[in-house]
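note to self — DONT lose this again. spent like an hour looking for the file last time. sequence + predicted structure for the chain T wanted, 96 res
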Amino acid sequence: EFAMDVVDLITHKRRAARLWNAPAVVAVASGSGILQCVNYGSPARTPMQARIQGTYSKATLLRPDAETVSLKVARRGSTTEVMIPEVHRLATIVFG
């Protein structure tokens, strides 16, 4: 209920970030093209889709438990979308 209330308040078009296939992951996006993802559940070993406001041409995935990875980006109107391969506890995506 709370999540739906927040979406209604800020509207779909103004959400800073959105995740799919990430039931226990909380995402926070900054206006400078950085998306922080914290996983409060079991390690997410299947890819999750993430979308951030803004149009970017590249994205880099940083995780404390794995190597840095360049992600393929897809532009969707005024947003940019990536697939995050897996998140154990923490992931940072830097868009540029």
